[in-house]
Design brief:
This protein is α/β, with parallel strands linked by helices. Helix content is 43%, strand content 12%. The strands form 2 sheets. An 8-stranded parallel β-sheet has the order 3-2-1-10-9-8-6-4. The longest helix is centred in the middle third of the chain and has 21 residues. It starts with 8 loop residues before the first strand and ends with a helix.
Length: 346
Amino acid sequence: MAKPQRYRFCVGPWNFSEGRDPYGPETRPSQSFDWKLSALKELGFDAMMFHDDDAVPDIESKSPAQVQKEAKELKRRLAGEGIAAEMVAPRLWFHPDTVDGGYTSNSPKQRRYAIDRSKQAIDIANVLGTDLLVLWLAREGTYLREAKSGRRSVELLVQALDAMLAHDPKIRLSIEPKPNEPMDHAYLPTIGHALAIAQLTSDAARVGCLIESAHAILAGLDPADEIDFAMAFGKLWSLHLNDQNGLKFDQDKPFGSANLRVAFNQVRALERNGYGKRGEYVGFDVHPFRTTKPEHYLRHLSNSRDTFLRLVEKARSYPEKQAQALIADRNYQDLDQLVLNHLMGT
């Protein structure tokens, strides 16, 4: 019998949040990158995710040669700790030139800025040893329908994706959809949109997706269905597991925190589709609660991983034969209770 899949885990530097929110300041002290890197190693995580300016701080003030030099220095630091780089993402939602969107801005100059910065992020990814560029299209949308043409915006997105694909023949583009926030409406709000636009690019095989649990919930979808859908296409290349208490702002709660059954079904979807067998990581895009004390800074990370691994055990011990008999009898009432009993350990 083949050994069960061993999962590998990653998080990003932004997951060590200091507790600041729109209504109040930080509640915990800021920690250095070296502290975060050491914490990952101590927790036993395998990789770190990066925005381009996580990898190279103050990236806008540095020459291409300086950016490459600092990326190489980061690569050495990661190697020294035994931590891999899972992906790089261009941070296109902070800069003044992306106020009206990056790739879909009404300004040709600003669109060029977004594409150039994305190409630089690809160069950083190459140095760090990852072929995965994640695109969270945060401001690729509109507050006002009359301000942009949706059809034209799709064309502009395809042009941007094609420019990135042409920049490097090995890079894979993983689109991370979100239905809203910070924009009122996004042009690629779901996995279906992300996989559809891939077909319009010059190399659809290199355009896939990243699923975040909370983003699927915010779109009124079940994350497990999104996982199954993406993996039916062989296009789920990265994953941000977390939780969400309804249709609110993006909460980034620890995995399984709000709805354990929804979390269980995500793990079952990953298991039945063999996620991770091609080297994919399980990422946790989670933040400590604002009330968390500094001495408990890392518990949201270890708790999310512990919950995931417990749910892997539950998925693998699920009474499948009993479930299939109930399904064949269309006895979904008792199937429902079977799942609840299994999760509760009764």
